[in-house]
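User: I'm putting together notes for a lab meeting next week and I want to include a structural view of one of the chains we've been expressing. I don't have a solved structure, so I'd like a prediction I can at least talk through. The sequence is below, exactly as it appears in our construct file.
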Amino acid sequence: MIGIRFSEFTGKNKTVFEKLFDIFKELILHTSGDVDEALDWLNEIDKEYGITTAEYTMDDFIEELKKKGYLREEIDTPNGDGTGDGSGLSITAKTERAIRSSALEQIFGKIKKSNSGNHTTKFTGQGDEQTSDMRSYHFGDSLDQIAMNESIRNAFVNQGIDDFSMTHDDLVVQENYHKAQMSTVLMIDISHSMILYGEDRITPAKKVALALAELIKTRYPKDTLDIIVFGNDSWQIELEELPYLKVGPYHTNTVAGLELAMDLLRKKKNTNKQIFMITDGKPSCLHEPDGTYYKNSFGLDEYIVNKCLNKAAACRRLKIPITTFMIAQDPYLQSFIQKFTEANKGKAFFTGLKGLGDFIFHDYENNRRRNIK
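Assistant: Thanks for the context. Below is the predicted structure for the 373-residue chain, given as structure tokens.
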């Protein structure tokens, strides 16, 4: 009798260290880089699921993290005089790279590394990547573009074997695809609503940012990525700060984020520029010229909304598309994002946290293909 036999899925055989390390990397993002808190949670998980063994304990795991360069011990010196009240553990740059790689794999899938780091366009000429298209040689074409085999064959056909010679008319060159660079600013909302009502939205947002950074680093190394956060104000952060990013007691000053993003992109020499904005709430704050803050958390304030729409239109005039990832389901907030997107002629995805990374990856690729000339 022919049939299908089912068995329990076992997956890839992992060592105890690998299992613990996968969980540890997730916990580091949830605890904003607090190693002690992450290890406390890991201990609780181990008690419930029995990951460690008598031969490999949690202490062995911590020692192996240190030995492999994922953790380092730091002396706590809060008084700044060389004395402190103990020592603590912190993650290293190697751990940060491992977290970025893990986020990339989880959100974007496994992507092969590209040496050039540039994305091809539909335009041909004296570009970077060879195609199968041939054309006649024109004065000014680079010599390394000449397809020698095809040119010699043309000479044999045109002049014959007995009186072989090669003329200008025999030469053909191989077309190349032009490649392009992209300058991207990623805006992350760190207002209080990102953890409101017990829902953690900042951790997935950080994971998307880490994955995007690793994508650019491995596949598009010639691109640029700037990361900014916005609450009552907006400021730029380094990639190394992402795992430690925390939500603050802030309102949402979307205008300040857009102004900083525009300032950063104006300085870029690349023709192709874009903004990704990850947010879950309405704009609720403005920084006035006199230094005061105008805040309104109740509904959509027309004064704040109009300022946001004006900035969206200003980005459109600068040919900077904005892709907004809206992770709240409120209809009136979605209506605002629709108006914001229309003003910019950009894009918006109305989605929950699930699948957020897939949308970003898909849109990033499409933007690069469409906007290059």
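A couple of points you could mention at the meeting. Confidence is low (pLDDT under 50) at residues 77-86, 110-117, 121-131, 361-373. The CA atoms of residues 320 and 342 lie 13 Å apart.

User: Perfect, that's what I needed.
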